[in-house]
Specification:
With 354 residues, the chain is α/β, with parallel strands linked by helices. It folds into 2 domains: 191 residues, 3-Layer(aba) Sandwich (Isopropylmalate Dehydrogenase), CATH 3.40.718.10; 132 residues, Isopropylmalate Dehydrogenase. The protein has a 12-stranded mixed beta sheet, with helices on both faces. α1 crosses α2, α1 packs across α14 and α8 packs across α9. The N terminus is likely disordered. One of its GO terms (molecular function) is NAD binding. Pathway: Cofactor biosynthesis; pyridoxine 5'-phosphate biosynthesis; pyridoxine 5'-phosphate from D-erythrose 4-phosphate: step 4/5. Its main location: cytoplasm. Belongs to the PdxA family.
C-alpha cells in the first residue's frame, strides 16, 4: 500500500477519512466543526455513528448537512463525491447510548472499528489520508481488546516494523512550521538512555528523511538532533551517550546522504537562529521536545505518524471528557483543523511527486 493510492478525478476535492474518536469526549464535535470549516477544500469523510453525528451536528449548527452511507455500500459501489454543501458519514454504529463525559466500554469496539474502516479505505483508494480524533485507550481495553494507542495500532495493522512520532505546527509570531520528532515516546525517564542505540537512531533518521521528502515535498531535509544529557554531555563529563551512541548514528546517517547535524544541547537549540534553516528537530525523549512544540504552536499542534504506508495525522490533545460534559461549544477545534490541513498538504505533496 502506497502513502496514498487514491486516484484523484479532475475538479473533485481530495477525500480524507476523519475518525471521530471517543464518542463521550470532544472528538465528534471538533471533527464536525473542523470538517465543515474546511469542506470547500477537502472532502472530510466522518467515520462514526451516523445517527449520533447527525444529532450532534444539528445541535452545533442546523445548517450543517450530513449524508450517511453504510460501509457495505461503499465497499460495493465506492465512495460517492458529494458537493461541499454537505459532509459524508460512513456509518460505524455504536452499541450503547452516549452520555457526554461518561465512558462506556460497550462502545469500545465501535471506536476501534472506525480505525479499521479508515485503514481499509486507504487500501481501497477511497481516502488519501486519515485524520484521527482522540480516543480513550481504557475504553477499548475494557471492551476486551488489547490496545496501546493509535500509533501502535496503525503500525500493527499495516505491518510496519517501526514508526516515528512527529509533532508539528505553526509557531506563534511568524507562523513558520516547527517539526519535532521523537527518538523514544512513552517511556519512563529512567529507561530512555537504555532505549537509545546506534541502529535504532539510524532507523529513526532514515524514516524522518524519507517521509520529509516523500510526504512533505522537501527535497533535501535538514534534521537537527538533540543530545540526551545537559549540554549534550559536555564532552563526556555529563554522560557518554552523545559520544558512544548519538554522534556515531549522525555520522552514519550523513554517510548515507542524510543531512543530520548535532548533537546539540536541547536547552539552546530551540531558537530562531538555529531553527530557521531546519526542517525537523529530533528529540531524544517525549518531554525534551514536546513542551517546546506545544508552547510554540499554542494549541495548533498536529501529531503525525511517520513511517506508515499511509498518511495519518491527529490532534495533539486528549478526549477532554470534563470539557465534553459541560456541553457543546466549549472545545477548541483548532488542532483538528490544523490536522486536516496538514493531511491535505501531505496528500498534495504525494500526489504531485513524480
Amino acid at each position: 500500500m502506497s502513502a496514498t493510492s487514491s486516484k484523484r478525478r479532475p475538479g473533485v476535492r481530495p477525500a480524507i477519512a476523519v475518525t471521530v474518536g471517543e464518542p463521550a469526549g470532544i472528538g465528534p464535535e471538533i471533527s464536525i466543526r473542523a470538517a465543515w470549516a474546511r469542506r470547500h477544500e477537502v472532502n472530510c469523510v466522518l467515520l462514526g455513528d451516523a445517527a449520533f453525528l447527525a444529532m450532534t451536528a444539528a445541535d452545533i449548527d442546523p445548517d450543517i448537512r450530513l449524508s450517511s452511507l453504510s460501509l457495505m455500500a461503499v465497499r460495493n459501489g465506492g465512495l460517492p463525491h458529494f458537493g461541499a454543501e454537505r459532509l459524508t458519514v460512513i456509518d460505524v454504529p455504536l452499541t450503547a447510548h452516549v452520555v457526554a463525559g461518561q465512558l462506556n466500554k460497550e462502545n469500545g469496539r465501535a471506536v476501534l472499528d472506525t480505525l479499521d474502516a479508515a485503514i481499509e479505505g486507504t487500501r481501497a483508494g477511497w481516502f488519501e489520508a486519515v485524520v484521527t480524533a482522540p480516543l480513550q485507550k481504557s475504553t477499548i481495553n475494557d471492551a476486551g481488546v488489547k490496545f496501546s494507542g493509535h500509533t501502535e495500532y496503525f503500525a500493527d495493522q499495516t505491518g510496519t516494523p517501526q514508526v516515528v512520532m512527529l509533532l508539528a505546527g505553526p509557531q506563534q509570531g511568524d507562523g513558520a512550521p516547527l517539526r519535532v520528532a521523537l527518538a523514544t515516546t512513552h517511556l519512563p525517564l529512567k529507561d530512555v538512555a537504555a532505549a537509545l542505540s546506534r541502529d535504532g537512531l539510524a532507523r529513526v533518521l532514515d524514516i524522518i528523511h524519507a517521509d520529509l521528502r516523500h510526504k512533505f515535498g522537501i527535497a533535501s531535509p535538514r534534521i537537527l538532533v538533540c543530545g540526551l544529557n545537559p549540554h549534550a554531555g559536555e564532552n563526556g563529563y555529563l554522560g557518554r551517550e552523545e559520544i558512544e551512541v548519538i554522534t556515531p548514528a549522525i555520522e552514519a546517517a550523513r554517510a548515507r546522504g542524510i543531512d543530520a547535524r548535532g548533537p546539540y544541547p536541547a536547552d539552546t537549540l530551540f531558537q530562531p537562529k538555529y531553527l530557521q534553516d531546519a526542517d525537523c528537530v529530533l528529540a531524544m525523549y517525549h518531554d525534551q521536545g514536546l513542551p517546546v512544540l506545544k508552547y510554540a504552536t499554542f494549541g495548533n499542534g498536529v501529531n503525525i505518524t511517520l513511517g506508515l504506508p499511509l498518511i495519518r495525522t491527529s490532534v495533539d490533545h486528549g478526549t477532554a471528557l470534563d470539557l465534553a460534559a459541560q456541553g457543546l461549544g466549549k472545545a477548541d477545534c483548532g488542532s483538528m483543523e490544523q490536522a486536516i490541513g496538514t493531511a491535505l498538504a501531505m496528500a498534495n505533496a504525494v500526489h504531485a511527486a513524480p
